[in-house]
Amino acid sequence: MQWVNALSKRPSLEAAIEEVVEQAQQSLQASPDLGLVFISSAFASEYSRLMPLLQERLKIPAIIGCCGGGIVGMNPHSQAEEIEGEPALSLCLAHLPGVNVHPFHLSSEGLPDLDSPPQNWIDLIGVNPSDKPQFILLVDPFYNRINDLLQGLDYAYPGSVKVGGLASGRLTNITAVFHGSEHYQAQAVGVALCGNIVLETIVAQGCRPIGQPYRVSKGERNIILELEQESNVDDLSLVVSGEPISPLEALQKLVQDLSEADRQLAQNSLFIGVVRDEFKQRLEPGDFLIRNLLGVDPRVGAIAIGDRVRPGQRIQFHLRDAQTSKEDLQMLLTRYQQQHPNSSQLAANAGALMFSCLGRGEGLYGSPNFDCSLFQRYLNIPLSGLFCNGEIGPVGDETFLHGYTSVFGIVRQP
């Protein structure tokens, strides 16, 4: 298995395509089975020309891609770069012996509804769950059934990893995804990889918990109406203690105990972490699904979040800033290294994809190339990707659409 990437910053689309195709083919030295292309939104007026021009220069059985407000790829010095707000084209080629590569593209009208049996989703994708496919998904942000798509794929292909992101623009509302020789708007494209291949993920949501966990005692739709405080009994079980309180009251008590710096941060960077394993006592980063805090109703003390809630769920307030995002990604990369003692030997036959939020990058860290450089410090493998309008990756056993997150997909041989 071989993965290579080439990056061009040429402002001419023809010149950029010529450069990445030549560099990628020279590096690969084998017939490509899969291509992934990421194009800067600076080329928005030329999206319709991308795939025909690529197809003239590159014979490849399966290729998908999308646009991004920022593009990630490898420069000629084998260093990953994040190109934000400027013309850029990133091409990833993969030689995948023993792997069945199955590309697909989906309109929202063609999706089964969520009450349909799994077989309807299997017929739509065209891959049997017994083949244990791994999925890369690229979705236009105007695709109006994104969450249905993720839930349907989890339903039909439990245990299969799904990773990807939403196309994005910077200073433009024109977005597109690409498949074969065509470009599409308001649709989804993807590839299912089966066989001699493993797809692993690192989902860095960039938040730290503050205060203590609570259990939702009353809630409807996306509104939390009442909380109950938890406490541990001999670290073996969780019990509810104290009187139920409103979410607003819990938040006000929490803010009073914060440092001045965190109080300032809470004004703009406060989030809700929803615990995925309701029975786990010792909560760690990665145990939470981070969701936006959308608003507060002071009349009843309720808060609204960016997801559905139900009684019994556990939540904890979180803060996000540059330092927390850095430490979160470092911790996850360290954990991956510890779980894979031979990760330093991956470079020869592995690749990685990065799907990062437009709200990260230089705007968050104050310096360029932060996430991709940190990733390469731990895993020196070819990296490509984009800055997204939403990032797709698993938390626990389910796949979610995230925000303010960097999702990495690491593709390697078993």
From TrEMBL:
Pfam families: FIST, FIST_C. It is a multi-pass membrane protein. It is found in: Cell membrane. It comes from the Bacteria. SMART domains: FIST, FIST_C. Residues 31-231 form the FIST domain. PANTHER family: F-BOX ONLY PROTEIN 22. Residues 247-395 form the FIST C-domain domain. It comes from Limnoraphis robusta CCNP1315. InterPro entries: FIST_C, FIST_domain_N, UCP018953. Keywords: Cell membrane, Membrane, Transmembrane, Transmembrane helix. This is FIST N-terminal domain-containing protein.
